[in-house]
Structures are given as structure tokens and as C-alpha cells.
Amino acid sequence: MAGASIESLRHLSDDADYYVTALDLYNRESRRVQRICEWVDGNLHAMATSMDVTLQKEDSFSVLSVGAGDGIVDHRILGHLRDSAHPQLRAVILEPDSHMMQQYQDLVSKESTKLQGVDLDWRQQTFQEFQATAKEDDKFHFISCINSLYYCGDLEKSLKFLYEKLDSGGLLLITILSAEGGLGKLWQHLSNTSISQRQFTSCYLQETCKKQNIPIAEMQKISIQCDISPCFDHQLSQDGNTLLDFLTHTVNFAQNAPAEYRDDVLRFLGSPECSVRGSGGKVILDASNVAVLIRKQ
Ligand SMILES: C[S@@+](CC[C@H](N)C(=O)[O-])C[C@H]1O[C@@H](n2cnc3c(N)ncnc32)[C@H](O)[C@@H]1O
């Protein structure tokens, strides 16, 4: 397929099994999950206690987790909410991938005491499917979208729906690639191509919120770095290939992208715009996220 057009490249999330493999590798190399968990541990308590939510004794605090994945981050958020916001919690867990949902369920059984009293409503479905069937008066006190909003379709529509689904005093927490980080800049660099129109960053999120009069209460940077040296090896290893596929969100990018386009992407990825040189000439990509907090008045 060498020399194929950019338009014919396959988006990573259109190959569900390969997406999971590539995400696992990226998570390992970047320690993304650990960084976000550290942020959650440092901030969730204050966030939960700052919420102005009125609940009767018999009411549950309701949570929606969008694209919860294997649950490592999302179940930690639930634990903090249970400890700090309300002991009686009901959580709808949206995750379309059966393998990841199973991993989340295994984690909950393994750490059963951590989520005691939490009523988990597992939905193996996409956000779009949930959106199509959601009841109008079903509202949530807390909604989390941890690196999942990219996959939920039209951003304007998703944000409008999520904001409407927040109960009064509720909080929407979104983590997304920072437009100022190297990976965010790469996604913006790619954004003129049809393959990557689904890959937006904090900048587009801010613009979309402004357009819809959705007030952003706070934005906090979560620093994440990833050693991407294997993406520049002359003879790409399997890991180098898979990592490059995750970064570009393209299946078999090195083999299938037109040569000129591939070289431009690699040049930009290795440039100071995106990366720094670490010890032994390692190429270290800034893949920082931003945590965006939206409060419903
Ligand atoms: C980058 S992972 C994040 C997973 C988890 N929240 C975390 O931070 O570790 C993106 C998640 O979104 C899920 N996803 C993909 N398409 C989706 C959709 N249309 N609706 C909801 N979730 C989706 C994926 O299966 C995956 O679990």
C-alpha cells in the first residue's frame, strides 16, 4: 500500500483489538495512567468537597464514566468521590470494548473493599449509543471523560449533551491532550488531514466550550513524557511501529503513509516543537494532558 493517499489511511480506533495493543504500549512507555492517578489523588478530594450538591439522606450521588477503559483511573475517581462526596454512590460505566470492560470488572472484584457501597451499572456501549437512548431527566452529579472524548463523535454535540446531563452543582471532568504539549502539537499538525480530524486538543475544547457558553471553571496541566526513540530507528521494531501508530492514531503508519507525508510527520515529531533530546540521545516527547473542570451552576 506504499504511496497510498492520506485519505485511505485507516484510523487506529477503527481496529478495536489493535487499538488496545497500541494503547497498552503507549501507557507503559508514557506512564500516562500513573500520572493521571497521581493527579486524581492530589485533587479529587478538594474537588468533591467543593461541589454544591444537595442530596437527601436516601439519595445516591450519581456518576457517569465515559470510556472508562480498564478502570484504573476511573475506579480511583469513584473511590475518592465515595470517601469525600457521599457514601451512597451510583455509577454508570460506559465502555464499548468488552476486553477493557472485563479488566475493569476484574479490578473491582480484586479490590472489592475500595468500592463498597458503590452501585455499578455496567454498559458495554459507546457514548453515542448511550446518548441516543438516555432519558431526559436522568442527571449526574459527576461526569468523567478521561482521555475518551476524542472517540465520542462530534465535539459540539457531545459537550452540549454532557453539560445538559449535569445536575445542578455538578462537575464535568475532562482530561485531554494539551495543545501546548508535543503530542498535542503533532495532532494539530495532522489536523488538516482527514485521518486526524477526530484528534483534537485542549485548544479546540476551549473554543467549543466558548462557542456554546459552557463555562470552564479551571484547567490544570498534567505533565506526561514518553520516550519515542524507537519511532526513529532506521529499521522499525514492532514496538517502534506500534508506538508510531498510537501517536499518529493510524494503522501501520510507517508502511502505509505516503513517503513525503511520513517523513514530514517524523521530522515534526523529532523537532524541538514536540520533543527534547534526553540522555544517550533519547527522543523524549512531551505528551502532557490538561484536566478541564466544568461546573454546572
Ligand atoms: C485512551 S482510552 C482511556 C481509558 C481510560 N479512561 C483511561 O484513562 O485509562 C479511551 C477509551 O475510550 C473508549 N472508547 C472508544 N470509543 C468510544 C465511544 N464511542 N464511546 C465511549 N468510549 C469510547 C475506548 O474503548 C477506551 O477505553
TrEMBL record:
SUPFAM superfamilies registered for this protein in UniProt: S-adenosyl-L-methionine-dependent methyltransferases
Record-linked InterPro entries: SAM-dependent_MTases_sf (IPR029063)
The organism's place on the tree of life at top rank: Eukaryota
This protein's name: Histamine N-methyltransferase
Taxonomic placement: Eukaryota, Metazoa, Echinodermata, Eleutherozoa, Asterozoa
